[in-house]
Write a structure and sequence with these properties.
Radius of gyration: 39 Å
Structural class: alpha/beta
Number of strands: 18
Shape: globular
Oligomer: single chain
Number of domains: 4
Amino acid sequence: MVMGCTHQQLADPWAWAAREEGGRVAGSSLPRRPTPTTAIGRVAAGRRPPAPATGPPQGTPAMSLAPPPPKASPSAARLQKPAASCHGGQPKASPWAGSPPGAATHLQQPSRMKLSPSPAPGAQHLPPAKPSPLAGSPPGAATHLQQPAARMLASSPAKRVLSVFSPSAAGSLRRERNHLPPLASCFCLRRLMSTGLPQIPSPPATLMRPWCNEDEQVPQLTPFKISHGVSDTMMKQYEEDYKYLVEEGLDLEEMKKLYHELVRPVLVASCLILEHHIVSPETKALDQKFKDKFGKPPIYLSALDIMKTLIAMEPSRWSYLMDFLREKRILVTENWEVSLGSIECIMHDDSISFMMNGRVVFKGQSDGRYNHGTGTADLCTAITGEATDIVDCAIYREVPCNSPTHAELLGMYVLERRAISLKILLFDVKTDNAFVSETVRDMFPITPNTTEKDLCQVLRSMKVYFEHFNCRCEPREKLELVDSLMKMKDNEMTMESIKDKWAHYLLRLPVFRAHQPTKTIRKDYINKAPTVGTVAFHGQYKIVAKGDTAKTEAVVNLVLSLQPMVASVFVGNHISAISVKEEIEKFVKGYLLDIKEAKGAYVVVMKFIETPNAGGKILDVLFNTEVGEVYKQTANSVCVKLLDKNDGTTPELSPACLLIFG
């Protein structure tokens, strides 16, 4: 013996220390060595360390939730052999000595030995070891680490930590212990897995980046040419472009000419041009009527705003902008000196395929709508792959919820959770809620005062399952998939109805968003009127349109804007009536059309399919001036005349008509 130790202790001092109760070597005042870790903090030269674990690859089954069985180790086997006492007495029996095959060894049990006086930060001192509850179990009995999660929790104190021990690493450390710095124990908190989520990827064995040779350190890059421009030439080109695009392209007189020839007829037929100045008692009264009728005041733009937007837009999109103005009931004041707002043209990026190293980057969007009355929320998520392929879509109704923000957070949770179930590793998501986006992107610390702090932490923790995860905050118009689905009733969700709702998305058409400083507009314009006037409603209105083509377009725009339950278009001859009917059928959906003859005139009768017998005003359109002689207006109708030239007496169509038919 040397220094009071036996040969067994000298042969394997760490194994001997591990089997001693109280964590000290008998006959020595030194505490036992800290349990070695599998990570040694450096990388052997010329060898690549284990790569950090990532989420489960696509197409592979989820990892088992049961703890893996312990591996047999030489050190564990040695611990079952009796050893002599440091004082020369009889060998002290191991707590598991004489256990039948399959019984657990000490190293297979949760560590119960005290740590050294200077353990790693965060390490906990554990109580002394106790005899294994499995001692004396029959052959094949499960070890402590093989028990189900519920029994593991019941058989040990809450939040007990497990020591990570590698016999091979211990042997290496024994051979090089004189050349290594002191080591700290590595602990991992026992985690009880849920039945749905796959196992969380294991942490890396080392925090050293993977070793690679010099060739692998340089990424592949296709050679390209770098041009070195001349600053004077660039500035000269800019001056020429400014003159062409701004001075000539936005020439006021040219814009006015184009406005009156092409744009104004559409705005008039759509009932969007203000009848009075924006700062007037009549406009102030109209503003209040719109708020009472449609729930919010209208957006106001000037003719200058409209033309600047059109000039800077690709010509094929002009008609879609007119549809947007009509749908949102954006009112236009014919002012060429001031700008009241702007219109943003948005293109859906869901139809764009993203790739990363030859793999598809899936795109997701989520939305939540909170119901204050019931304290619940409706959630909707959608995941797309390449182009317009819908990989996954889900709707949850009446989810218990606390606030609109809570609803948006729950929507993002559902989106991430479903992506994990699909084993998606590359994921790009978007939301229209800034708080959700900042939460997922770790832009603030989660504190006890954070809104829905538990849910926020779950969203951040779920990112561990993705190799690439990116979140963007986008306007609601870019979340058309989930926003439109959530507004539909469950019994209306057919492929045909969904296809109609997603037409812009599927056809990759532009979407628009109006921007206006609402408080400034109301302060500087609407509320400047000294008093609130009255809104004048007339029985007859006019549209100046020259030629049958212009008149047919006026009828289409008028019906699209007012959407009357019943409309009658009085045409002078049968051929024109057929042409008008065909054009209306091309652009207007949801109506039953028929041609009838009445006192020498032909009438294209339109009835709304859903409620053909509903009450409300009837729209009568006089396509030709000659039919005015045989037409008789009723008290329940509004008549619109299509004139080749201004008669100077009949008022022009105005936004007041939107209040009549809205």
